[in-house]
Structures are given as structure tokens and as C-alpha cells.
Amino acid sequence: MAETHQESGGAGGDFDLSQFYQIFFEEAGENLDLMEQMLLNLNLDTADDEELNGIFRCAHSVKGGAATFGFADVAELTHKMESLLDRLRRHEIQPNAAMVDVLLESADASRSLLARHQAGGEGEALPTSDLVRRIGELAVGVATPPVSAAPLPVAPPAVSAPGPAVEPLHIKDGSARSLEVRIGPLEHPEQADAIQELFRDIAGLGTVTVVPVDRKDMRIFAVETASSDEDLLDLFAFHVSREHIAIKALESTAPVPGKAEFGFFDNAAGAPATASSYADDPPPGAPLAPLPGFGFFDGSPGAPSQHAEVGATGAAANADAKVLPKGPAKVSPASAASQPEAATIRVAISKVDQLINLVGELVITQAMLAQNSRALDPAVYQQLLTGLADLDRNTRDLQESVMSIRMIPMSIVFSRFPRMLRDLAGKLGKKVDFVTQGEATELDKGLVEKITDPLTHLVRNSCDHGVELPAQRLAAGKPETGTITLSASHQGGSIVIEVRDDGRGLSREKILNKARERGIDVSDQMSDTEVWGLIFAPGFSTAEVVTDVSGRGVGMDVVKKNIAALNGTVEIDSAVGYGMKVSVRLPLTLAIMDGMSVGVGQEVYILPLSSVVESFQVKADAVSTVGQGSQLVKVRDEYMPVIELEKVFQVPRFNFEKSCDIMVVVEADGSRVALLVDELLGQQQVVVKNLESNYRKVPNVSGATILGDGKVALILDTGALVRRSRH
Amino acid sequence: MGMMEKLDELSASGAREYLTFRLDQEEYGIDILKVQEIRGYEPPTRVANAPGFIKGVVNLRGTIVPIVDMRLKFSCSQAEYNAFTVVIVLNLRSRIVGIVVDSVSDVMELPPDSLKAAPDIDSVIDSSAVLGLGSLGDRMLILLDIERLMSAPDMGLVSDAE
Which residue of A has its CA nearest to B63? Predict the structure, then answer.
């Protein structure tokens, strides 16, 4: 380290910042996420200083970092955001929906710009000049109709006081002034030229003309503007440092009464009209529309349990802050969910994994010691045995704590949905409230990453297919605004994530018709569960119109496949007219699995317990052969193929008197096979290890684990075994 | 003298340290920097459909490591497993592999002038995996490019896709 410093010192202080890039990108991402969350929660009428300051701080941190690291495009955009937010927090202008929209879009744009820098600056940069211009206009008080996104409805109080909202600060000096701005001496005078662009980009700022100057390191501009010196300095400071700027009023020149002033009042007059048009005619697509009553519980299918109610209270409080025009006592959801000052440290995942590995080893060693000490005489070795008992307890606690490091709360996943739903509902012209429950439920980080996409799909589905258009809902006697509930809870050794909506529900009829159309064998006698299961078939979609949101029929089968790959299951519950509920059940972690160990010859294999259906001792007459000797076993009127593990794994057999007579029925991909084994050894939690990191892929084996005696046992890939039986 | 110059000099002189081990009557040498550790042999867990010289996988402090018996791979006359059987654990491009040998003899530094190019011979060892022959008095040392040897397709240690 010391060497590096010396070297960089010798090179003329050209300190290499690139080593901090990663930290900056992570922090900037977090800040943008946090800002987005706060913007979505922002109540336009009762926005308090704390909220606005929080949003401002986020933009400010990103700007600071971006400028330090030389990402000029990000810095420019966030600087604009910061200026707008600064005026908001100083109550010089009133927040409105257009601002929230443009800020959200800018956050997205910053994110994509950052991603481009992170990837080494390759590819086309997202153009931001339009955003910059819009923010600039909003900051000076010109309300422009947003370009694309559906605006939030502005509640009446915001309109009742449009005066302060549109009256720009810059006008407080009275009228346009003529100024001479001297910039320099500068090493790179080209920087100053960018100031001209400011005047071009920000409507209403005024006009600028270049005054010829004989010094190369100086720039002089003649500026006509209504803005104060301080505001100009703030703006210019982005391109050149303050100490190089000198602003002098040109008294001698007569102020030009025309352009600037005229333009201003013109805009100002137009602005309130625009704002009130929002209020009078709320766009139908606007989500989060305030409703007198909340139908959280009325509309959701299935009676909420007590646990759900506890979660819902929090969620309702959250929604209060979002929707109610005048929120009651400040129930700050942020304090519970995402405090930026949370005492956390960043640690590389590999370090945590190494720790988990070592603890796993420790547990095995401890188990070995415990086993060996069992034969000792307690009277003689009392101290040793007490010590071992302590060791047992401590290692178990240690393992638990270490495993919990990898666990992260579900709120990380949930937090991305409000924004997505807001945009989606706006696009579809629907009104949707989003409620989350059990955000604190913890899940393994690896699982969280893999569950996000399937969940996104389910939530989109609910919004697109489930929740009806406002008019349809009213006609059906339901509240205009639909509710999509996302909840997570622990149940035993697994986590259950539910996506629930109070929409139209699944139609048996439609699904059966569609299935027949697609040539799937169905009958009217099928149970509801079986019918709902059909929507997981590849290429199945009941949407009447294919939209860009859903309806292409890729999706539910992928969702099911992805979840099955995580050893999870999906269940659907639905009632026509009342909505539908999709429950995803997942193991808590990928690193640990409930396994059933079976013995074949001298060897031990592990079966994932989640795929084991039953086991039984087989009678010779229950097995029949077909054709080339493939065996079938009859289990309660059902024939299923038999797979002899002994043959599949070429297990050497020394004791020929003993033979396999136990069958374990496993299910995967919807089919069942019976595995023939010697004996059942028991059920245990096993730590899943990757076999491929040092070796190649082994057919029919999904991984390996280490048994209590330190030996390696292979974990069977039941999916592959089932597929094998089909060919 | 900078680090790079030192490295250059080292590679120019070619003086390297080699771990030598015995397979039957033959003596082999491999780059010491590829060796992670040396440990006793413990019966591995057999893996189905693997070639005979892959004895299976063992648990090396939480990592699953395949074990290759070099004596079977090089068609030695006998391959016994007893208390003196040794496993050399190699770290090759972030993959860990254990090889079973009869015994580990020594670590020695070989000056480049004691290295002779191996003549073309018909052998079970791919000639491209033999770096050369080292002479130490009357003993002959076969220097192996162990990384090339282990990643060869016929070792069956890596998936075909890789």
C-alpha cells in the first residue's frame, strides 16, 4: 500500500480513482433506489421538510460522487435534479406530480448512465438533454405537461394555491437585467463555453452573447436575465468554479423590457391552467388515486390470518402516507424499512461463503468428536464431556448466526414493485393499490436474486390479467381501485410468498377451452386445482389480447420451472369475481437442503426430501416387466417406472445375498418414478456443495454433501432420473 | 531492483523448484507452485461412470475434490493403498485436484542447463505434457506440465462444454 502511494506521488499526484468506482456505483445505486422509494411515498400536499431533505440528500450524494469520478453526464443530470429539489425543500416552489414524474425518469436515466459507465463506457449514452430541459423548466416554475408517463392526480389543495407553485424565484429581482459575466483566468477556457448551453437549455433563463476578449484564458459574456446573481453563480458553478466568475451589472445599458419578461409572464399565465387541468380531470390511468375507504380486506380473497393483519396494519400505514390527502400521525415507514444510516458493512459474498464453509467443517469435526466421546466413562472424563457439550451448543449457535449473514429481508425484492406497478397500471389504465406484508421475512441472498424475476412476472400478471379496468370493477360492485397484495411469511422450514389480487379471478371455462384448443387432454370433471395447474403448461395464455405486458404465453411455465429449480412449489387458488392467489413455497436457503439418505450396496446417496413422495417395501408380485425388461411397479392402481439405482450408478456389490427391496417414490416435473434402494438411512439437513467447481458434471447427480463422518455423499438429481425414465 | 526485473531474471535463468515424486521405479517432477498441500490417502466416494483412474471425490475441508490415481493413469504394475500412500493436492487455475502417487521424495531447484529435451518416445504420457528430462547424477527426472496433463480431455476431469 505504501508503495502504491509513493508511486502515485511520483507520477504527479494523478491519483487513480478507478479503484473506488465499484463502491461509488453501489452507493449511487442505493441512493437512487432510496430516492425513488421516497418519491413514490411523497405526499404532494403534506410533504414535510424531512422527506424533501431526504430526497435532496440522495440526489446530492449521487451528484457529488459522479462529479468526483468524472461522470459528467450523470453529474449534470443529478445536478439539475438537485437544483429542483433544493428549491422544493426551501419551499420556493410547490411539489407537483409532473416533478415527481420527471424526477423518477431522471433517476432511471441516471441509473442507465451509471450502468453504462460501469460497463466501461461502451454503447450509446442515453440522451438526457430533454430531461435536463424539463427539470430546468420545472425548477424555474414553468409547468410542462409530462411527455410520456401518466401523471399523478393532483389533489385539490395543490391547485388552490397555484400562485406560489408557479411564481418563479428568479423574477423576484423584478425585471430583466443586463450583466457582464467575466470568467477566468482558466486553464481550459472551453469549459466556460458550456455556460452558453445553459441559457439555451433552460427556458426563461435569459439570453447570452459572447463578448470578444483579447485574452485567451478569459471569457466574457453579456447576459440578459431576470435571475439573481446567486442563482446564476449556482448554475455556472457546475461548469466553472465560483472564484473564477465575476458578475457585474451593466448600469449604462438600458434594460430591455421585451423578451425575457414577456416570456415569463406568458409561461406563468399558462402554468396554473395546466396544473388545474390535472385536478379537474384526473387521467383514468393514474394509480394511487385517493379513495374514501380502503378495501384492503374486503376485496382480497381468502380470510387474512392474524399474522396477515399485523402485516397489513403496517402496510396500511404505509399506504396512508402515500394516498391520504392529510395523513394522520406521521407513521414513518422509512424508519422501519430502510434507514440510510443503518449500521451495516459491505463484505464480499465470497468471504461469507468461506465463513459458512469453515463453520460447516467445524460442525462436522464437532460431530466426530461427539461420536468418539460417547464411549468414554462419564465419571472419569467429566470435564472433557462438559467441554464437548459446550462445544456442541456453541457450534450450533455459531452455524445459525453465520447462516443468518446470508439472509436478507424480502423488502429488498418488494421495494421494486411499487414503481413497476405504478408505471404498469398507468399504461393499462387501471387503478391499483399495492400492499406488502411481511417485508421483514428473511431469505437467502442467492434465493432472493433468483426469485425476483418469477415474482415480477406474477405481479405483472395480476395487474394485467387479474385486476379489471375501473369501469368494469364499478359495474361488478367492487371498489374502483384494485388491490394487489404481496406477502411473505415463514412456515416451518420454508418461506411462503403470496401474490394476491382482488380482480376477476381465473375462469375455469376459458382455461378448459383454451386447453382443448391447444390439444391438451382435459375433461370437465377435473378438479379446480388441476384446472389452475393447466396455466403452467408451456405456451398457455388466456389473455384475449396480446399486449407487451403479457399474453404471449411465455411466462407461467417459466415461472414454474424457475421455482422448481429452487426446490420450490407453486400453488394457485382462485374464485371467479373475487380474485386469485398464487403461493410460492421455497426452502429458506439453497445452501442447506432437507435430504433423505438411502443406502445402495456400500454407498450412500441423498434424495431431496421435497421430491420424495413415499417409500415402501416392495413385494415381488408388484413388479412387472414390459418389453426390453423395463420394470413397472403398481402403487395403488398406478403403474410407475422403476429405476434401479444400483444399475444407474454401477454400484459394486460384494454381498450378493442382500438385495434391493425398498422403493422410494420421487416426483419431479409432474411425473413419478420408483427408485429401488437397499435401505433407508434417515432424514437429515445437508449442506449442498458444488461438484462441478473441481470436477465435471456427473449425470443424474445435482451436487454433493459431506456426511457426519466427513465422507462425501452425492445428491441425486431427481428431475434427471425422471426424465431418464421417459426415454 | 523492481519486482518485474527480478521475475524476468528468474524466468530467464529458468531456475525453478520442483516437487519430485515416485511412481513405481520412475521419478517425476512438477512445478512446486502448483502444489497446494500433501496429505495421506483416504478412501474417496466413488463417482459413477468415471474412468478407472478417477478414484472418486473426497472432502477437503468443505471442498469436494476429485482424486486421480497417477499409477493407474500411467499403467504402473501395481497400485496399493496403504498408510504410506500419498495424495498431492494441486491447485490448477482455481481448480483443485488430488493425485495419488507412491511417495513424495524431495523439493529441488533445477538449473536450466541440467534440463534436456525429451526424445520422441511412445508412451502413455502425451509428449506435449513432458517439459523435459532432468538429470541428477545418475537419476533421471521426468518433468511434467501437470496443468496440461490434468486438463487434457482424456483425463475426464472437466466437462466437455468447457
Answer: A689
Q: How far is CA A305 from CA A25, A277, A505, A586, in A?
A: 41, 43, 21, 20
Rg (alpha carbons) of chain B, rounded to whole number: 16
Q: Do A603 and B47 touch (CB under 8 A)?
A: no
User: A15-165 adopts what CATH topology?
Assistant: Four Helix Bundle (Hemerythrin (Met), subunit A) (1.20.120)
Output the CA–CA distances (angstroms, integers) from residue A125 to A109, A130, A200, A238, in the order listed: 10, 13, 21, 20
Dihedral over Cα of A17, A23, A26, A29: its sign: negative
Residue A590, all three cell numbers: 439453497
Q: Which residues of B touch A710 (CB under 8 A)?
A: 59
Q: Where are the domains of chain A?
A: 15-165, 176-256, 349-405, 409-587, 592-726
Whether the CB of A706 is below 8 Å from some CB of chain B: the reply is yes
Determine whether the interchain pair A696/B46 forms a contact, defined as Cβ–Cβ distance below 8 Å: no
Tell me what the mean pLDDT of segment A362-375 comes to: 80
For the cut 80, the answer to whether the pLDDT of residue A494 exceeds it is: no
- Which CATH number is A176-256 given? 3.30.70.100
Tell me what pLDDT residue B15 has: 59
pTM: 0.50
Q: In the beta sheet, which residues pair with residue B149?
A: none
- Is residue A205 scored above 90 in pLDDT? no
Closest CA to A62 of A88, A20, A24: A24
- Name chain B contacts of A649, Cβ cutoff 8 Å: 48
C-alpha cell, A511: 382455461
ipTM: 0.81
Nearest CA among A88, A84, A78, A87 for reference residue A58: A78
In this complex, do B158 and A696 lie within 8 Å of one another by their Cβ atoms?
A: yes
Going by CATH, does the domain composed of A409-587 fall within 3.40.50.960? no
- The reply to whether A592 touches chain B by the CB within 8 Å rule is no
A605 at the B interface (CB within 8 A)?
A: no
Cis before residue A185, ω within 30 degrees of 0? Answer: yes
pLDDT of residue B159: 65
pLDDT in tens, B80-94: 888 888 999 999 887
Between A690, A695, A713, which is nearest B66 by CB? Answer: A695
Reported confidence tier of residue A297, pLDDT bands at 50, 70, 90: very low
Q: Flag whether pLDDT at A290 surpasses 90.
A: no
pLDDT in tens, B133-158: 887 777 888 888 888 888 887 777 77
